From TrEMBL:
Alpha-L-arabinofuranosidase B arabinose-binding domain boundaries: 644-783
Annotated Gene3D superfamilies: 2.80.10.50, Galactose-binding domain-like, Glycosidases, Immunoglobulins
Entry similarity comment: Belongs to the glycosyl hydrolase 2 family.
Hydrolase found in the keyword field: yes
GO biological process: L-arabinose metabolic process
Organism lineage: Bacteria, Bacillati, Actinomycetota, Actinomycetes, Kitasatosporales
Name of the featured protein: Glycosyl hydrolases family 2, TIM barrel domain
Residue ranges annotated for the Glycoside hydrolase family 2 catalytic domain, each copy included: 381-495
Key words, A-Z: Glycosidase, Hydrolase, Signal
Glycosyl hydrolases family 2 sugar binding domain mapped to chain residues: 128-201
Signal sequence segment: 1-46
Amino acid sequence: MLKHLFLHFPSLLRPRRTWRRRVAATVAPALAATALLVSGAGPSHAAPAWDPKPSPMTTPWTNQVPVDHPLPEYPRPQLTRPDWTDLNGIWDFAVTSRDAGQPSTFGEQIRVPFVPESALSGVQRKITQNDKLWYKRTFTVPSGWSGRHIQLNFGASDWETTVWVNGRQAGAPHRGGYDAFSYDITPLLNGGTNTIVISVHDPTETGGQAIGKQRIQDVTPHPGRSIVYTASSGIWQTVWLEPTATAHITRLDMVPRLEDNTLRVTVRGAGGADGTSVKVTVSADGTTVGSATGTVGTEISVPVPGTHLWTPEDPFLYDVTAELTGTAADKVGSYTGMRSIAVKDVGGVRRPVLNGKFVFQTGTLDQGYWPDGIYTAPTDEALKYDLQKHKDLGFNMVRKHIKVEPQRWFYWADRLGLLVWQDMPSMDSGKTPDTAARTQWESEYRAIIDQHRSSPSLIQWVDQNEGWGQYDQARIADMVKAYDPSRLVDNMSGVNCCAAKDGGNGDVIDNHNYVGPGNTPTEPVRASVLGEYGGLGYRVPGHEWYPGGGFSYEDQPTTTALNNRLVGLLDGMRENTMPAGGLSASVYTQITDVENEANGLMSYDRQVVKVDQARVRAANQALIAASRSLGATVKLPVGQNVSLRVTTPGYTDRYIRHYDGLGFTEVVNAASGDLLKQDATWTVRQGLANKLCYSFESRNYPGEYLRHREFRVRREASDGSTLSKEDATWCPVQGSGGVRMSAAGFPGQYLRHINAELWLAQSGSTHTWDNPASFTEDTTWAIEPPWAP
């Protein structure tokens, strides 16, 4: 749990059981939840009493969820107003066939905003494409809201949502599962007790829409080695009311500009607000640092002198207010972080730079699933917990994997200091999307960008993943970059996987390597990142979703083995892949187990942290620190012949040679025969798999290279495959008295001589050639003039 007491929006951070909540004066205006003034405010008397269902696994927060007012925190921290009413709680509920009209009776109850597939909803059953969900409740508008417009807001509802108030439809149905939406219901109110009815149809993978990892399946644990999970249908984020002026602010688009120490703000509005005069003020610790006046819909430049930069180590946030001036009285509170993100050359390598400086981004894949709430975290403290664990483990980044979280998740990432890669949820991986699906997907993507474009933690959009529902990769990347030029764009995560196609553009090139970490070949324009690696598994008895059903990419027999393997991967990036191979970021799979995936750093129920937290944190911190003082890469003479000499004391007269296709070391001197001298001579080539690394071509067998296969190092021709090229590519790092040659595909494993044979070795691993004795000396080579010209 978090131990830090944050001063920014303190009431947002501490859930209270009271129904009226306020926030600190640093947010102007202060937030408050207004009491629901209604007789029998919840469901009608026809439905039976609500009861929870037993969760397949119990998180520390499962039993802390209030029955009547779950998730009571203000849901929109970057656009706050003083009055609002939370509609979370017990609603009447019914399920009909998808084509049916509103039912005459609602025979069940559901706890909103938990989906009916979840235990926390109190329903807990499978919903299919043939079903339609129905929700119903009543409310009365507080008398203090008289004369204002009433907005009905939804954080998210999956997928097609239709709303009626007092029997009249509120606008058009909303289609989308991950973006917020609202209705002005003022004309539909009756001045007394009002009734809301909501229908939702969610076809999940049988439709063409964005679904991420949702699939229709049994809601209780079952066997299966699947990387897709239980579907989440219907309302899954907070539903709430707020009063506004007729002309009112709907969004603040905020872009920091460090070049001139300004915050560029575009205030968006509705109800005739466009063109209205608006004043934007930026403050810190209650003191105004800058303000400017402009009009709604146009960019306003607000000075922020003496800018305090936002970084993962120091996630400083400024308070922001925007107020319509003149007769239009609307004022909102917000916050921002001053930071920049770009890609530029650093020591001759393209790398992402935060505030102009390269820092290695080390993070995890975060699926955002819960055994009790599925898509919805049980409490705000739970939502915060996973992000805090990233910080505790030393990570500075998180990749939110093909799901979009509530705005409060982004608030916590902003507050805690985590760089966020945000995936656009993919369409079904087994289909080629038709025209209607593509139009819907792109529309929802733009809505998601609009909703989260002002979060300082969010630094990169990830358009598509491993070819799932892929199409028009290059066009989409250009579209996203044009729509939000202030962030990086990844056109495809995992371009080397699963028939994925690289659009060739965007800011990064992104490979997936399991277990890895492997490397992503460097390019002259895009930065090289590793969008997924790891997947190390360890099953914790008593904390398995389906006991005995867990799987991973590489099971570990003990927690000691898990820690050694994970730290070894991190150290390999620090020692080799980052400095020698040009890697700039990596995403470990994954922060928690999810259903039958047992490759989390924590168990699915968040009850157990499987790894040594201090040790993993130290490895991540060392990796980040090394990136800040990164020197130049080791350069070898491309196109020239060299010989590679042993540096181990007592063996320094030996050189690498090939014999009958295998690699050995042998004494070579002036008296040696011509054949031996030729066999001990290699031509340095640019790395077949990475231009920053090198391949060694046999001098007397052109087209054959020094490569590893099944750990043994040999002379072999490349067959043109990616694997063959990687196995014949070596990334040098500076050693004492020479260079150490790390395998491009296996950072942390080195070219080693032992008993005159050449092996791919990792110190302390399980093979005889991994013996740690004299390991560093045996893996260090002097680059000498060639024995054969």
